[in-house]
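Example S7 (structure tokens).
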């Protein structure tokens, strides 16, 4: 049985004080929840406040990105050992906003995943096609290519430190969620690609999240799909009450 994971990606939102406020509201509200893992990814500047606020709770903290070198003359960058030192358990890699706006490639995703493994952290590796790729029938090939490139160095045992997030670019921040059927079909493709490379037992154990306009109102139908093991939530993770109802998807 794969344990579900609900992850909030705050993107470039929230100060340290706002992060503390969020945890002050969320933690008592989810005290009895134990059906899923919960991860929150604040911006770098609020990582410390979030780690401190979440200490002793069931919420793990993730970064949103990292550099693949452990240190060096890379102005503006943050490394995996630094994230580990800050108390992060995960980092998101390959988010489509990084791919589209900041030059992230499958090759940099591969290096970042290796850096996370070396530092003892886990990766939430994002894949997903653009609208043009979907409309021209290339969605599956795009996602298979991103997986092959990003996971190129990984071994079967490393796979247990990876969560894959399928985020169709056309569904991110647009209010246009993939239907549960469309999402489930691509989750099946991802599991099949991983089975081909690592074996079917490994693929069965892999957690695959859906992301793209996940809200309290659509989480239950998405989570009802057997291949959807959780969600990567952007906008709707910023408000503690909204994130709480997503976390509580079986009994909203
Ligand atoms: P959204 O973002 O939920 O605001 O669509 C999801 C994401 O980019 O991870």
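Recovered sequence:
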């Amino acid at each position: 049985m794969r344990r579900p994971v609900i992850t909030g990606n705050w993107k470039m939102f929230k100060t340290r004080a706002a992060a503390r406020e969020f945890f002050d509201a969320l933690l008592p509200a989810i005290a009895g929840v134990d059906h899923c893992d919960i991860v929150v990814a604040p911006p770098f500047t609020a990582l410390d406040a979030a780690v401190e606020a979440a200490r002793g709770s069931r919420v793990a903290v993730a970064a949103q990105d990292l550099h693949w070198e452990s240190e060096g003359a890379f102005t503006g960058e943050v490394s995996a050992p630094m994230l580990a030192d800050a108390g992060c358990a995960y980092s998101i890699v390959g988010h489509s906003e990084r791919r589209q706006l900041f030059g992230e490639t499958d090759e940099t995703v591969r290096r970042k995943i290796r850096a996370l493994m070396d530092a003892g952290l886990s990766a939430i590796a994002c894949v997903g096609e653009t609208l043009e790729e979907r409309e021209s029938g290339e969605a599956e090939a795009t996602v298979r290519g991103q997986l092959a490139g990003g996971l190129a160095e990984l071994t079967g045992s490393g796979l247990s430190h990876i969560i894959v997030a399928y985020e169709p670019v056309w569904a991110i921040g647009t209010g246009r969620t993939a239907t549960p059927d469309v999402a489930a079909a691509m989750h099946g493709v991802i599991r099949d690609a991983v089975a081909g490379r690592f074996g079917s037992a490994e693929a069965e154990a892999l957690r695959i999240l859906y992301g793209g306009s996940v809200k309290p109102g659509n989480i239950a139908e998405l989570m009802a799909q057997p291949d959807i093991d959780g969600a990567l939530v952007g906008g709707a993770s910023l408000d503690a009450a909204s994130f709480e109802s997503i976390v509580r998807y079986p009994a909203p």
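Notes on this example. The two ends are 22 Å apart (CA to CA).
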